[in-house]
Design brief:
This protein is of the alpha/beta class. The protein has seven helices and four strands. A four-stranded parallel β-sheet has the order 1-4-2-3. Helix 5 crosses helix 7.
Length: about 160
């Protein structure tokens, strides 16, 4: 009796055959993939940096529009001029590191008058990430750091 030769599977057929697993091993394939929880809270970022999906709700917290930046490139969701430092405070500070502590104290005092806007930002941060955008060159001594601290402190207290 002649023996039959087995036909060799083509590379496509071989790959297709390997793509299926046994029933006992395939249960995990039907389970729902865990969904990533959206990032929440407050972050700060320089407005001149490129917008990213991870930024969430982008809020410019400056009184003046950043020099040389188009509205399209800024990709803002909101511009809150009222919660930025007053013009007098901004001019007094003039990004002098020696005045940083006093600037923070004075800016916190100014923010007490804008409780409704701050509360609206806190509500939004419970739903999605809120990125506070600033225009200063210095990432360490700018008002967005103080604002983020105020927003986080009140959120944690609740």
């Amino acid at each position: 009796m002649p023996t039959r030769r087995r036909r060799r599977a083509s590379p496509v057929e071989a790959a297709h055959a390997r793509s299926y697993s046994s029933p006992a091993c395939s249960l995990h394939e039907f389970e729902a993939a865990p969904t990533a929880t959206p990032a929440r809270g407050f972050e700060i970022k320089r407005v001149y940096e490129a917008a990213a999906d991870s930024d969430g709700f982008r809020v410019l917290v400056e009184r003046l529009w950043p020099r040389g930046l188009s509205k399209e490139r800024a990709a803002l969701d909101e511009w809150l001029t009222d919660i930025a430092p007053s013009t007098a405070l901004r001019k007094w500070f003039h990004h002098d590191p020696a005045r940083w502590d006093e600037f923070g104290r004075r800016y916190r005092a100014e923010l007490r008058g804008h409780a409704a806007q701050l509360q609206a930002l806190r509500r939004r941060a419970r739903q999605q990430r809120v990125t506070l955008l600033y225009g200063a060159r210095d990432a360490h001594t700018n008002h967005a750091r103080v604002l983020r601290e105020v927003l986080r402190r009140r959120s944690a207290a609740r």
